[in-house]
């Protein structure tokens, strides 16, 4: 028994899967609990408990079905073990398999609501399949039921009926629509308009009879029986509809989370013009303000994917199909609006009710909408006319009674409008003349209900379900009889639960219906008297009736034992609900309405239907109670259904939260019981509850026969044949299995050998089993005992196999140990002999080595002499070549300086000439003035003063004026020339800056060729140099319009804003030194140039703290956390791919400027990750690029307008000969990953890349605002940058780092605030730096010559003039980390100090330094 798969019940009675661990005897077992399919992990999963099965049916735990398919069994009659737990298990498997929501139980279809739509199950092809093929060859479907009904009608000419039942939310309404659409298709006729009218009538009823509840958004609040009428040719020609028990109370009240009927919300969602036509034009009339629509406080405005406004348009269209259109439609909508407006009336007063002042205008509005007299309406609602024998008395109503009358009027008006609409639908869809010969009925009726408080409506619903269950049980009983007859096996009378006594309790002469009607006509009848009389008559007479002994309302409660369980009813207000009457005043008022529709629905009809009013008809109509009407209509329904061949569809609701991935076991089992499925299975299995197909039985239990016959291991026979009496029969059965071709005979001999003789006779006249034509049938407990013996046999076989396996393993271990011992001994002996051999071998080698050393000494002396001679010759040639190169360079620089000197000399001479002419004229003028004054004085002394003598000579004045005019002219020309020279210099400076930024790449190629010609094959590796602080970005669209880069500040780390002609990928701290490269210029970048790689607004860098040196990324300097040397890479050309002129081409490799290692690929679980770990070029990953403009222009017109000229700089970086792109990973790393073409757009900033190249300037300037700098300079002249002081980025309380990414160790301080400081003592330079802030520091890249002109480049793009990367930038990682810093220049607050750095013992002495 151990290992058997069973089911157990927990304390709440819910079923749980389990595996038997041990059988404890006396029906007790120890089991291990297992989780259900699709259920979340529970604390009890895997735990072991003890269970007692002695009280269960058969005295044993129910078994699980073996070989359960992944999608379950489509027909549950094929289950070997068919019981409540097995049904639940099979439904769970099919629900979570997600393949189909339908399951067969014989001819019954169980439809589990999946809470999702399967469009592939309801196509036209599927409908045709169930018309053509046999249902046994197709998966379960509702179409099988509709097809069976249609073909049954064709073959037998007998009416068919399909009964669809289930609780609210189980999918009854949707199932009826599916069946109706299928029947309309297969029975379609030529009149397509009439068929469309029939099909559309069902959604029309949904608008007026369905509402949202807590269980279902589109719940039917009434029952209906639709008769699809067919002619002789089985073509659909018409339909009729009967409705049952509309929930009128919903009109005036809803529970929390529920809505009123859909039509009210549809009317309130219509457009204002249409609302004005039926009296709801006021903007204050909304679903949230009107009383009858706001009580449930539901915010739902979309039902099954359609809004209320869209549904209203569909409803009006469907009404037009049935003839409700134009003025009639307006009258219908006005009457419905009157129902809503009645809810707005409020009353006041103590003993006599009167309208509130605020409600008087509303009352007039109601009267105008319903077209009745306003005063008459108020009178009918606040007063009641009581008719005595000879007189009438008017009674004043209280406010509560007036509100009740108002609600009763609203309910009655809506109910009559609904009945009128059903009549219009029937009249519009009925068959013409005598065309209808037969029909197929569709019954959509409420399922069994049991709530905490069960009212009058629940009694009527459960009464209807009892009637339907009685027919259902009889139909199942007949099906079982037919099955036994088809199999050819005898059967006894089957006992089943007959609910006839319960129906007698309800509908007998002294039953509940009769006594309730009697109490309604009594003058002083009450709910308490009604319950008391029921108790007196039925408490002792039947076991189906009882009274609760406890509870606050026990005087009004009674309990009925229904087939699905006990239900306790509370009879509060039953008499009023049963009477369901309104005052004659209201009836007479509405009969006189100007709205013809309202007057029609309240017209008093005579028995002949003529509409005439007579007392007898009035008395007959008034005496009919709700329960009497319902009983009569139910009796007519059962008579109609009883004349048909009935098909059943049971709808099941899997959970209360409308989830497609959750199934509540207890809820499903309860619905199966209420639907009668469990009882139907019990009836079908009453005679032989266990059954199995012949083939399966032979395959499953022949091992027991072989074991009983002694054809297995020794212990097997005692397990298979515990009595020891079946060995001969088992041997014969095994022989027949090999020779017999008749499976029935083979099964009969096999089961006779396995079932003990005592069991064969003790179960009754027909024995414990029967072998039919296709199956073997067993009495209760027989198949379980066979399964138990089979399980024990399998366990014994498993033990025997494991015993032999363990023996084999032990022998294998022994042989392994023996072989190891022998190997060890052989190894020891081998070692001893080898030691002796090696000793002799070493001695021989020593002798050979000494002999060879003696011979090699003679040869090495000659080789050393030759090497020294060749070295001396090579050094002499090198020094000669080096001197020639130096002389050529000196002569070239001398010639350039001489040409500049001559140009300056000519200009100086011209300037001096002009100045000398002016000075000579001034001296001449001064001499003449002095002579004139002297002559005037002498004349005055001789002749005295005179007017004529006071005036200077005329020729002197003319000369003076001429000289002054000539002087002014010369001054103006001089000033004009100065202005022109200054303007030309400024333009020249700007043109040089722009030309330098644009043509850096092309100049690099030209300078490389000239440099190779001048200096031979020596590679000139350069340092970075910056642009001038006032220089703009290059003309390729990378300069900010009207904004030159300023000094780095605390806010300079913010990315530049995007504008027309401005790239959004730049950031301020590196503007002065780094230049974005256009995609067209990338192939021309010189190999060995220093670049940055940006992806979107992020910059790629080497992870400095990681051992594997992975490539990571960070936002581009947007937190002022310093420039990192790990951001820089040297771009190199693969030797086997690059071009002959040393340009890069499309293919390239990357080498980290920090670690000097190549970027290579590393495969991880997340994909291809990039690491700076390659030590050789062969290990480097080869990349190429694809310009963004070539791939993303289809992304939308106006790409350039979106990002400006930045599109010329953007590209995608991918592996060479591979489609994988460089991409930012969400875990912070940089990976190569394949992406879709649709993702390759500029908006995907994780893959959009751009290059940034270090500008090559011989000199550059930085502007410093902080007090202290953090640069260590040598104290020798020139002042050279020795090292940079690092500022720790992780230090949160320090000032923000302002970085340039340009200053390197080895650069020379050449100027302070524009003044040349080369040759000035160190202390004076320090005083110049400290005297003011901000201060501009000028640096020269590794040169000591005169400072070049502003913006003039002294080296090629991509290199410094004479600063080799091998000295500072390129070198070992240890030396590089010593000479550079992760932040190339950091400013922080420390005291200025001088530090003399003494060299280490193992290092050469370094110059004295000082730290700024």
What does this structure look like?
- The chain has 1412 residues and is an alpha+beta fold.
- It is 42% helix and 16% strand.
- Strands 5-6-22-7-18-10-11 form a seven-stranded mixed sheet, sandwiched between helices.
- The longest helix has 162 residues.
- About 13% of the residues have low confidence.
Please outline the helices and strands.
Layout lengths: L4 E5 L5 E11 L2 E6 L14 E5 L31 H14 L4 E4 L2 E5 L11 H9 L9 H15 L3 E7 L5 H15 L5 H18 E2 L7 E2 L2 E8 L5 E9 L17 H7 L3 H6 L13 H4 L7 E2 L2 E2 H14 L5 H16 L4 E2 L5 E2 L1 H14 L3 H9 E5 L4 E5 L2 H31 L8 E9 L9 H32 L12 H8 L4 H10 L5 H12 L6 E2 L10 E6 L2 E6 L3 H6 L4 H8 L4 H6 L13 H9 L2 H17 L2 E8 L12 H10 L2 H8 L5 E4 H15 L7 H5 L6 H13 L3 H12 L2 H6 L6 E3 L3 E4 L3 H162 L10 H45 L1 H16 L58 E4 L11 E7 L2 E5 L8 E5 L13 E4 L16 E4 L5 E7 L2 E8 L8 E5 H4 L7 H5 L7 E5 L4 E5 L5 E5 L14 E6 L4 E6 L6 E4 L6 E4 L23 E5 L2 E2 L5 H9 L4 E6 L32 H7 ...
Parallel strand pairs: 6-22, 7-18, 7-22
Antiparallel strand pairs: 1-2, 2-3, 3-4, 5-6, 8-9, 10-11, 10-18, 12-13, 14-15, 16-17, 19-20, 20-21, 23-25, 24-25, 26-38, 27-28, 27-30, 27-38, 28-29, 30-31, 32-33, 33-37, 34-35, 36-37, 39-44, 40-41, 40-45, 42-43, 42-44
Helix pairs in contact: 3-4, 4-5, 5-9, 5-13, 6-9, 10-11, 10-13, 11-12, 14-15, 14-22, 14-24, 16-17, 25-27, 25-28, 25-30, 27-28, 30-31
């Amino acid at each position: 028994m151990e290992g058997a798969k069973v089911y157990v019940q927990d304390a709440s009675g819910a079923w749980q899967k389990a595996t038997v661990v041990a059988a404890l005897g006396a029906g007790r077992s120890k089991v291990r609990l297992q989780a259900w399919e699709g259920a979340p992990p529970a604390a009890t999963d895997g735990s072991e408990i003890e269970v007692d099965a002695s009280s269960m049916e058969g005295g044993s735990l129910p078994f699980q079905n073996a070989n359960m398919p992944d999608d379950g069994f489509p027909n549950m009659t094929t289950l070997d073990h068919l019981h409540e737990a097995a049904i639940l298990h099979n439904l769970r498997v099919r629900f979570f398999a997600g393949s189909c929501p339908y399951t067969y139980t014989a001819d019954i279809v169980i439809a589990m609501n999946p809470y999702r739509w399967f469009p592939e199950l309801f196509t036209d092809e599927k409908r045709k399949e169930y018309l053509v093929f046999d249902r046994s060859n197709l998966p379960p479907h509702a179409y099988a039921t509709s097809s069976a009904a249609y073909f049954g009608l064709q073959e037998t000419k007998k009416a068919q009926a399909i009964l669809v039942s289930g609780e609210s939310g189980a999918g009854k309404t949707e199932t009826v629509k599916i069946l109706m659409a299928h029947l309309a298709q297969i029975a379609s006729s030529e009149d397509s308009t009439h068929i469309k009218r029939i099909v559309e009538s069902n959604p029309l009823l949904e608008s007026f009879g369905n509402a949202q509840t807590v269980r279902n958004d589109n719940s039917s609040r009434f029952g209906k029986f639709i008769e699809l009428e067919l002619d002789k040719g089985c073509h659909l020609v018409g339909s009729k509809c009967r409705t049952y028990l509309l929930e009128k109370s919903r009109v005036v009240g809803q529970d929390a989370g529920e809505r009123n009927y859909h039509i009210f919300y549809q009317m309130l969602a219509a457009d204002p013009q249409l609302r004005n036509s039926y009296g709801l034009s006021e903007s204050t009339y909304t679903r949230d303000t009107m009383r009858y629509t706001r009580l449930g406080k539901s915010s739902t405005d979309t039902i099954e994917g359609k809004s209320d406004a869209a549904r209203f348009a569909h409803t009006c269209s469907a009404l037009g199909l049935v003839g409700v259109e134009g003025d009639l439609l307006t009258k219908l909508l006005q009457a419905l609006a009157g129902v809503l407006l009645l809810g707005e009336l409020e009353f006041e007063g103590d003993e006599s009710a009167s309208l509130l002042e605020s409600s008087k205008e509303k009352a007039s509005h109601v009267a105008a909408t319903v077209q009745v007299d306003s005063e008459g309406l108020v009178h009918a609602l606040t007063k009641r006319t009581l008719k005595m024998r000879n007189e009438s008395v008017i009674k004043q109503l209280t406010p509560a009674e007036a509100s009740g009358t108002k609600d009763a009027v609203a309910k009655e008006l809506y109910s009559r409008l609904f009945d009128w609409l059903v009549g219009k639908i029937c009249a519009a869809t009925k068959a013409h003349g005598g065309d209808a010969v037969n029909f197929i009925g569709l019954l959509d009726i409420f399922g069994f209900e049991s709530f905490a408080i069960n009212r009058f409506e629940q009694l009527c619903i459960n009464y209807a379900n009892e009637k339907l269950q009685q027919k259902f049980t009889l139909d199942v009983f007949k099906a079982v009889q037919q099955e036994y007859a088809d199999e050819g096996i005898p059967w006894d009378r089957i006992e089943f639960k007959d609910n006839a006594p319960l129906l007698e309790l309800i509908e007998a002469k002294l039953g509940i219906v009769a006594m309730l009607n009697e109490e309604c006509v009594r003058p002083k009848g009450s709910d308490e008297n009604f319950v008391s009389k029921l108790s007196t008559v039925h408490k002792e007479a039947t076991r189906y009736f009882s009274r609760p002994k406890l509870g606050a309302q026990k005087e009004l409660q009674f309990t009925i034992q229904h087939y699905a369980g006990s239900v306790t009813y509370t009879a509060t207000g039953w008499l009023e609900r049963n009477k369901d009457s309104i005052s004659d005043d209201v009836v007479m008022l509405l009969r006189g309405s100007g709205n013809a529709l309202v007057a029609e629905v309240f017209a008093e009809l005579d028995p002949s239907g003529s509409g005439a009013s007579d007392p007898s008809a009035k008395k007959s109509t008034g005496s009919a109670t709700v329960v009497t009407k319902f009983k009569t209509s139910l009796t007519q329904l059962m008579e109609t259904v009883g004349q048909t061949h009935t098909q059943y569809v049971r709808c099941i609701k899997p959970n209360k939260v409308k989830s497609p991935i959750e199934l509540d076991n207890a809820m499903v089992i309860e619905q199966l019981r209420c639907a009668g499925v469990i009882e139907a299975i019990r009836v079908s299995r009453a005679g032989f509850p266990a059954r199995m197909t012949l083939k399966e039985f032979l395959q499953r239990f022949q091992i027991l026969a072989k074991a009983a016959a002694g054809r297995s291991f020794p212990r097997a026979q005692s397990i298979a044949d515990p009595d020891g009496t079946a060995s001969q029969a088992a041997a014969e059965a095994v022989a027949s299995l090999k020779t017999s071709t008749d499976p029935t005979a083979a099964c009969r001999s096999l089961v006779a050998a396995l079932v003990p003789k005592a069991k064969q006779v003790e179960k009754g006249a027909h024995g414990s089993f029967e072998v039919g034509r296709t199956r073997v049938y067993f009495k209760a407990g027989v198949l379980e005992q066979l399964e138990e013996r089979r399980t024990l046999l399998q366990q014994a076989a498993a033990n025997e196999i494991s015993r032999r396996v363990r023996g084999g393993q032990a022998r294998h271990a022994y042989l392994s140990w023996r072989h190891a011992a022998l190997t060890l001994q052989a190894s020891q002996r081998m070692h001893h002999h080898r030691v002796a051999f090696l000793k002799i071998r070493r001695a021989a080698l020593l002798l050979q080595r000494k002999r060879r050393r003696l011979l090699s000494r003679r040869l090495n002396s000659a080789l050393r002499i030759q090497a020294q001679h060749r070295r001396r010759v090579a050094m002499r040639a090198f020094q000669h070549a080096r001197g020639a190169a130096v002389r050529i360079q000196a002569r070239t620089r001398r010639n350039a300086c001489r040409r500049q000197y001559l140009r300056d000399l000519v200009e100086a001479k011209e300037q001096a000439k002009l100045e000398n002419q002016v000075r000579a004229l001034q001296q001449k003028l001064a001499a003449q003035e002095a002579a004139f004054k002297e002559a005037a004085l002498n004349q005055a002394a001789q002749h005295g003063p005179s007017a004529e003598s006071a005036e200077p000579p005329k020729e002197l004045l003319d000369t003076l004026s001429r000289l002054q005019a000539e002087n002014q002219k010369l001054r103006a020309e001089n000033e004009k020339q100065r202005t022109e020279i200054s303007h030309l210099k400024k333009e020249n400076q700007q043109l040089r800056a722009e030309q330098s930024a644009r043509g850096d790449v092309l100049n690099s190629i030209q300078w490389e060729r000239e440099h190779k010609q001048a200096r031979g094959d020596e590679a000139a590796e350069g340092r970075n140099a910056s642009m001038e602080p006032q220089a703009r970005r290059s003309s390729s669209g990378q300069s900010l319009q009207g904004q030159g880069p300023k000094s780095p500040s605390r806010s300079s780390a913010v990315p530049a804003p995007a504008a027309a002609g401005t790239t959004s990928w730049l950031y301020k701290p590196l503007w002065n030194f780094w230049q974005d490269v256009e995609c067209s210029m990338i192939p021309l970048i010189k190999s060995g140039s220093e670049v940055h790689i940006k992806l979107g607004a992020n910059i790629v860098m080497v992870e400095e703290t990681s051992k594997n040196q992975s490539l990571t990324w960070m936002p581009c300097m947007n937190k002022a956390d310093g420039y990192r040397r790990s951001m820089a890479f040297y771009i190199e050309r693969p030797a086997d791919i690059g071009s002959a002129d040393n340009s890069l081409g499309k293919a390239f490799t990357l080498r980290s400027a920090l670690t000097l290692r190549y970027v290579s690929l590393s495969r991880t679980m997340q994909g291809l990750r990039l690491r700076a770990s390659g030590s050789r070029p062969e290990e480097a990953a080869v990349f190429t690029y694809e310009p963004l403009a070539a791939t993303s222009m289809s992304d939308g017109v106006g790409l350039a307008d979106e990002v400006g000229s930045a599109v010329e700089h953007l590209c995608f970086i991918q592996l060479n000969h591979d489609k994988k792109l460089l991409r930012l990973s969400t875990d912070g790393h940089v990976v190569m990953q394949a992406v879709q073409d649709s993702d390759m757009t500029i908006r995907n900033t994780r893959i959009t890349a751009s290059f940034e190249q270090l500008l090559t300037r011989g000199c550059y300037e930085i502007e410093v605002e902080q007090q202290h700098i953090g640069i260590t300079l040598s104290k020798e002249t020139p002042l050279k940058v020795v090292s940079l002081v690092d500022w720790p980025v992780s230090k949160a309380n320090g000032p923000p780092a302002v970085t340039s990414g340009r200053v390197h160790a080895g650069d020379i301080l050449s100027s302070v605030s524009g003044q040349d400081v080369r040759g000035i003592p160190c202390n004076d330079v320090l005083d110049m730096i400290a005297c003011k802030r901000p201060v501009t520091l000028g640096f020269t890249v590794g040169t000591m010559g005169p400072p070049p002109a502003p913006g003039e480049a002294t080296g090629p793009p991509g290199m410094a003039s004479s600063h080799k990367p091998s000295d500072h930038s390129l070198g070992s990682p240890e030396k590089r980390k010593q000479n550079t810093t992760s932040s190339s220049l950091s400013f922080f607050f420390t005291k200025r100090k001088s530090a003399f750095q003494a060299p280490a013992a193992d290092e050469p002495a370094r110059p004295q330094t000082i730290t700024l």
